[in-house]
Amino acid sequence: MTNYIIRRLLLNLIVLWFVATLVFLGTNALPGDFAQKRLAQSFDAASQEDAIAFARHELGLDKPMYRRYLTFMGELARGDLGRSYETNKTTWDELGSRIATTLELGGLIVLVSFGVSIPIGVMSAVKQNTWIDFVLRSVAIFGVAVPVFFTAILLSLLVVKFSLYKIDVTGSPHLWSDPIDALKLYLIPAIAGGLSGGAGIMRILRSQMLEVMRQDYIRTARAKGLNDAPVWFRHAMKNAMLPVLTVMGLTLGGIVGGQIILESMFDIRGVGRYLFVSLNTRDFPPFQGTVLLIALVIVSVNLAVDLIYAWLDPRIRYS
Questions:
Q1: Is the Cα dihedral 127, 128, 130, 134 positive or negative?
Q2: Rounded CA gap, 170 and 267, in Å?
Q3: CB neighbours of 143 closer than 8 A, spacing ≥ 6?
Q4: Which helix or strand (DSSP H or E) is residue 174 part of?
């Protein structure tokens, strides 16, 4: 197990280096830079060129790309995620004021995703080929097929049409300080993101449950006179959940990507919206550092899921 963990950590380092290289090359391939975005409209035509050239020199944007890449990788090796061109604050400081909001929304999305997908997946398998199974499978297919932003739009129209409640999009409420307003703000994106993230889990769990319930030990448990509930949850679900764990780890990556869209749609001042704004303004250092930090979280979660998988199933031995 120790050798496996060491190999995975080394592989994760390679993945992070690859992600860092791609995000650096991708951002530098975009047309324009921060100096052009901010200064092109601030000066008359005669002084624009000199002002932009001076700003690019001050920010180091006039250096050759290979030098900027080496500087970027060296800062990452020291744990420095860069400094914003616009505010001159470090990426850590910028994220510090936004991470709580993102964690609140992300936690609610995960709660909805797993809290809905697991019961629906089990119930759909138990009620196979009934009208309940048909309805639940339709919900899962809807979640897989429909983009998260479209689901959010439909839910928003529903709230507006029937005047269910009002959302304060100008404030930044938190669950610990203003839970009612925070839940109103997070409810639609949490449901939309949860349905989108949990749809795949529903379908996989259903198929795994159906496969497990055909196994000999399930027939033996029924032959011994066990009721349906212990058979479903104590025997079938425990084994059917093992492959689903891996999908859950991958789902977290999709939830992170969905939060960028949802935070931008509902003006939620979290990390996802900050990523969108920094990319749009060509404020590349915090964008690059944040993307790499998200990649670190995703590869770490997947490593943890693999280890939990081995812990739950004694037949698995990593070497």
A1: positive
A2: 8
A3: 151, 195, 196, 198, 199, 200, 202
A4: none
Residue 83 belongs to a domain = no
* SS3 (DSSP) at 314: coil
**What does the block give as tokens for 299?**
């590869």
40 secondary structure, DSSP code: T
Q: Residue 123 belongs to what domain range?
A: 99-269
Query: Which pLDDT score, from 0 to 100, does residue 230 have?
Result: 72
Q: Please write the tens of the pLDDT for every residue from 279-307.
A: 888 888 889 888 898 888 888 888 887 77
Does the model's pTM come out above 0.70? yes
Q: Report yes or no: 23 and 292 within 8 Å, Cβ to Cβ.
A: yes
Q: What single-letter DSSP state applies at residue 63?
A: S
**Residue 79 three-state SS:** coil
In a domain, 117, yes or no: yes
Classify the C-alpha dihedral 260-264-268-274 as positive or negative.
positive
How far is the C-alpha of 264 from the C-alpha of 32, rounded, in Å?
Answer: 22
- Nearest CA to 210 out of 138, 139, 133, 144 is that of 133
| C-alpha to C-alpha distance for 211 and 205, rounded to whole angstroms | 10
Number of domains in the chain: 1
Which one, of 245, 246, 143, lies nearest residue 193 by Cα? 143
Tell me the average pLDDT across 264-270. Answer: 85
Which of 99, 113, 151, 142 lies closest to 261, judged by CA? 151
Q: Is the pLDDT of residue 32 over 80?
A: no
Tokens 């689901």, located at residue:
151
Give dist(CA 103, CA 97) in Å, integer.
12
168 within domain boundaries:
yes
Decide if 47 is inside a domain.
no
**CATH number for position 239:** 1.10.3720.10
